[in-house]
Design brief:
single chain, about 230 residues, mainly alpha, Endonuclease Iii, domain 2, Endonuclease III, domain 1, 2 domains, 11 helices, elongated, binds iron/sulfur cluster
Amino acid sequence: MAKKKTKKLKVDKELARERFKKMWPILKKTYPNATIALRFVNPLELLIATILSAQCTDKRVNLVTKDLFKKYTSAADWVKADLKEIESDIRTTGFYRNKAINIKGACTRIVEHYDGNVPGSMEELLTLPGVGRKTANCVLGDAFGIPGITCDTHVIRLSRRLGLSDNSDPVKLEFDLADIVPKRSWTAFSHVVITHGRNVCTARKPDCENCPIAKHCPSANNPDLW
Ligand code: SF4
């Protein structure tokens, strides 16, 4: 089936800012407990879980990491492990060959350059193999408490539908959003928007009838803009 071509909303920055100001209090009130779905207890676990979550559901990742994090408790454990064994341990998350290479590569750098500890800055995180801005922002926001906007598929889709940005490139979109959303709310914004994208504004069938921000959304009931 041919992919539906979505029309592009033209976004004006000032208008986007105004829209955000109206929608944000409603979204925060609707999802007061929105948080990350991946389970972890330290930055290393979140880094590994985030790498595993590419093209995989958080539910599946949590199932796999339940045992995985008992077996590998430090970056050094991942470095010592045979690549084939890592592949076999993470196979059910998909794309396991690349993920195994990235996990082992990232942990090798963590051990060699950061004394076995996941570094806590964007600049340093981006030096780890397989870590892009999305993963880095997730680790910064949820493991280190440093504000970060995680531009995953939900944040990209909703930001466009909500008329907050017309960029689909995740890095450009992140910078657009960083200009609109106050820094202190970056991490919460990511969780709230992801939750709204999973529950109401889904990719195929957004439920505009029951959406609490429909009156402020330029794409409400307009399938051409979905
Ligand atoms: S009104 Fe519709 S398109 Fe807009 S955010 Fe709500 S569900 Fe999504």
